[in-house]
Specification:
The chain is α+β, with helices and mostly antiparallel strands and about 80 residues long.
Length: about 80
């Protein structure tokens, strides 16, 4: 199951806000790996990932092909 994660980086210095990126992944480790590959500047920085949540809502993430296929199947049935 895919989820939305927020990956945040910290270099140990003082910041008014830390750089963070949102990514879709199946685990926290995969989210961190994806962001580190895309943003190589932060490779040596400490980082963590947390699941993106909105209180009172369920967030379901699908890849586009699967979503369209399921949507078409529901309309046929």
């Amino acid at each position: 199951m895919m989820k939305i994660y927020t990956v945040t980086f910290n270099d140990g210095g003082w910041h008014s806000s830390l750089p963070s990126y949102q990514v879709v992944a199946s685990s926290k480790e995969e989210a961190i790996d994806k962001v580190k590959k895309e943003h190589t500047y932060y490779k040596s920085w400490d980082c963590w990932a947390s699941e993106f949540k909105i209180e009172g809502y369920v967030i379901e993430v699908y890849d586009e092909k699967t979503y369209n296929r399921d949507k078409n199947l529901k309309s046929i049935l």
